Amino acid sequence: MRRTPILALVVFMFMIGQTAFAGRLIINSDTSDPAPKAAFTQIVADFNKAYPDIKAELNVYDHESYKTSIRNWLSSEAPDVVFWYAGERLNTFVSKDLLEPVTDVWKENNLDDKMASARSGVTFNNEQYGLPYTYYQWGVYYRKDIFDRYGIGVPKNWDEYLAACNTLKSNGITPIAIGTKGLWTTGGWFDYLNLRVNGLDFHMQLMKGEIPYTDPRVKEVFTRWKELIEPEYFIANHTSYSWQDAQAFLYQGKAAMYLIGNFIVPNFPEELDGKMGFFQFPVINPEVKMYEDAPTDILAIPARAKNKRDAKVFLSYISQPSVIRTLNDALKQLPTHKDAGVTDNYFLNLGNEMLSAAAGTAQFYDRDTDPVMAKAGMKGFQEFMVKPDRLDKILNQIEKTRKRIYKK
Fold this sequence. Notes:
By secondary structure, the chain is of the alpha/beta class. The protein contains 19 helices and 13 strands.
């Protein structure tokens, strides 16, 4: 059939539009801290050089606004690639058909073998919905020089930990830095106390809404937490500080310990080189095995993405062991690809050793449970840290949310 000039022009313009459209790749990221922002900016630049027909654009947002905005993006004008988290936080979007399966990316890059340890966190209904690119340990980062000054050894159990806190407090140093303005840091404390008191199986049952928050075993967690709150072992006015703000207390020597993830390491000031240490959260119940939080960060493709083809090219590029290694070297975190290797770094070596020996791992409180449940729980945790005498009221309020969400 002979095309008319107008039809030919329409077809030509459509093809030009498709070509231009297909080459633009929009990536939305929450990597706003200096080290990860610089790392991903460089990775995207390298990707653009490797694939000149694709123009990848990296948009960086702060953590808290990103968590709110991503829900809107996925249900309306979606970018082509988003940064997110493995576990229940991922499944929340998967269950609403807001994310694209990337099982083909896994198969093409042999990731079932190369990323076997991270596979479960992104697999739902036998499909993979994300590319894990890093995971990291949580634990206690502390001032070794301050501990040495007062003859404090690394605490292995709860009694030793409380004794260390008492010694620090008696010498005018607040034992524990924390910033709870963003709420999520309270989840780290709840996780570790619950994992050490009740173990991983109980913890995950609670995360799935199968156990009431008014259960006596949950109350025992808060009893332990109260042993740190009542003697004022946490910095004052922590609800006014973000996690970044609270670092200053540690660096200035006004506080000596910080329970946080390894993402804090790139922020350590040069003048503290050799003065910062790390230890595993101490044993509370000797009969409970040592479980750890090991959050895994991922890249995913929205179901409404306009350029899924190039998005999968980008995920495949990131999955290369050399790229994974470069990223994690900059992030000071652990690579998910078994061929990437781990940089010889004091904190990474300790973290890798600890996680390799762990009896099991959780993602993190707000990654392992329903987002609405997580918000209610962490709001209650923050309130408890300020007003521990209101525990029963707080737990009853959290329990109402659990019953509403899980209807159990």
